[in-house]
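Good morning N.,

You mentioned wanting to compare the apo and holo forms, so I went ahead and generated the holo version with S-adenosyl-L-homocysteine. This is what I fed in:
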Amino acid sequence: MQTLQPTDEMKKTDTKSVFVHTFGCQMNKADSENMLGLLNEIGYTETFDQKDADLMILNTCAIREGAEDKVYSWLGAWNKIKKKRPGTLIAVGGCVAQDEGQKLVERAPYVDIVFGTHNLFRLPELVMQAQETRKHVVEVFTELPEDLPELPVIRQNDFSAWVNVIYGCDYNCTYCIVPYVRGRERSRTPAELLKDIRELGDAGYKEVTLLGQNVTAYGHDLDPKIHLGNLIEMVGEVEQIKRIRFLTGHPRDLTADIIESVKRTPTACEYFHIPVQSGDDRTLRRMARGYTTDFYRRQVDEIRSRIPSASLTSDLIVGFPGETEEEFLNTVRLVEELAFDSCNTAAYSPRPHTPSKSWGEQVPEDIKFERLRLLNTVVSEVSHRINKRLLGQTLELLVEGVSQRVETRLTGRTRTNKLVNFEGSKDLIGKFVNVKVEAANPWALRGTLTTGDTN
Ligand code: SAH
Ligand code: SF4
Ligand code: F3S
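and this is what came out, ligand included:
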């Protein structure tokens, strides 16, 4: 494993500021933290005011067309800022940049730097190059380098950390752009991960989330081969880390061994995000998901019979090409039947480099959105029902911050990933507290603090 060594020229002494805005999944958020770490080595510190920034970075997501459209509207706004501050550099990274490369500067010529998902570690060089030449710098790799460089990181908080454990995805779901923009699966070694996670523990972190587009496939490409459960148990040995989470699982790769490891590891949270995508077998086959609804039901049984307190969440797509009304209703029925704690739902969006994009029988937009509306209603009814069962219970939370709605309210998460709001002072942020649940809505709970700072 080679470590990036900034050259003396790169370690410029004058401080500059960088503003980073991140779209997309947790992996993108983790990548942004690496961008900040990398840029810090050449003298950039983060600013939260984009108008002050010497460098503005948009870390993009290509999962749906809407996400991509947002990129161009943000860039348009940044162009206006740049006109007022001509020295400002604009960089675009992430999944849209990986896909579009040169096309991005053709469409938005005021963008200075385009870099992809496989060459993050090159960011300092690319920025230096743009600073010096004031010409477009476009660099996109087709795959990750053979030796994954160790990346410096500046994290968004000092108690909960995202840790990428496996990059890429080897599935080829017929709707999904991720394999194209993130490449083949590559697991990081347990030795390297444990070193990082022990350092996090020493630095006072209490929670880690092990990340991968298909985290349940972790380790299959390593020699010797290991599985996610082995990694979870190893992380469970790191004394200071009190909560271990993992995202996102694929139903096919979730084995009884992984579930058992979660059960055996006291610090592993009993929370499973295992997207089913559709509740209809014909649709699942056409999505190339590689399982049936019955297989998925058995997986849910495995989880719930081994860990009855587990929470279960999912992602669902409506309006996949050719999806009939009846097939859509099978998804609604599955949500009712399996009682997901919550679900991310989306209307199917045709993406470049995916087979289903050019299939006939695209579902009209108005029908997709009508289905989405109905599904959302059912998803939130089910969530509400489940959340109401928690009324009166006292739950342990890791306090994450101030509630977005009410200034005096704090927000935290249970081990099962439920969001709970309560009144409390800001010094509890990053601490464990106990809260008695007094109200429940579909998305969050409200409660009263019973014990502040439980350790
Ligand atoms: N690896 C995960 C999901 C990663 S992408 C899995 O296999 O389940 C995150 C979510 O975006 C997916 O679960 C899916 O629900 C949604 N998604 C992906 N492509 C989409 C598309 N073309 N249109 C709508 N939603 C999509
Ligand atoms: Fe996309 Fe399917 Fe891979 Fe998930 S498993 S990232 S949905 S291709
Ligand atoms: Fe989006 Fe890329 Fe993540 S497409 S969902 S940011 S892997």
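The chain has three domains: 9-139, 160-388, 394-453.

Happy to go through it together on a call whenever suits you.

Best,
F.
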